[in-house]
Amino acid sequence: MSDESTIRAEICEIGKRVYAKGFSSANDGNISCRLSDGRVLCTPTLICKGFMKPEDLCIVDLDGVQSAGHRKRTSEILLHLEIYKNDTKAMAVVHCHPPHVLAFAMTGAEIPTGLLPEVEIFLGNIPRVEYETPGTQKFAETIKPFVAKANTAVLANHGSVSWANSLERAYWYTEILDAYCKSLILAKQLGEPQKLPPDKIAELQQLRQRFC
Ligand SMILES: [Zn+2]
Fold this sequence. Notes:
- By secondary structure, this protein is an alpha+beta fold.
- The protein has a single domain, classed as L-fuculose-1-phosphate Aldolase, CATH 3.40.225.10.
- It is 40% helix and 15% strand.
- The protein has helices at 4-20, 77-86, 99-107, 117-122, 137-141, 167-190, 198-211; strands at 30-34, 40-42, 58-60, 66-68, 92-96, 128-129, 152-155, 159-164.
- Strands 4-3-2-1-5-8-7-6 form an 8-stranded mixed sheet, with helices on both faces.
- The radius of gyration is 17 Å and the shape is globular.
- The two termini are 19 Å apart.
- The chain binds zinc ion (ZN).
- The site of zinc ion has 6 residues, from loops.
């Protein structure tokens, strides 16, 4: 596992990518990564993800109690901690508000499967998590039923959350989801998207076992 200073730099780098892609406006979103001692390094509250410095980050335990960092931890760390507690393989979490995902999150429109290879391989089924007030424990617990079954979820009227064995991957899943949602919105203007044949979907699901 990488050392703490490498992870601090990596969180800042992922923050830049999240902000550059327009996945978080102003101070939206939060990013975290498990440290080798079991604690979690995370972004502070009220900071733009595109301009973070390694020393801005906070360290919390799995109950959310902050033990390091001069800024206050994000209240939404509770969502990340629920993922870490329910999936021991999850090492990193990226939560943000990608605009094309938000279009689905706000309307409740279904995100179909069986249309694009990358989505089948890397995301699989994308659950929709019921709305709760952000930052609360009740909000954090809404993710619980989906942690073992998925790696990315749409948070109703709120945004997206992705988790993986690395920061890079958790970010990838978010980027794949927003690109997919964007393509779905574009495709809808031209006609009905055509599903892949069931045998081809099955092949992609086998690939998923290898890649995820
Ligand atoms: Zn949020």
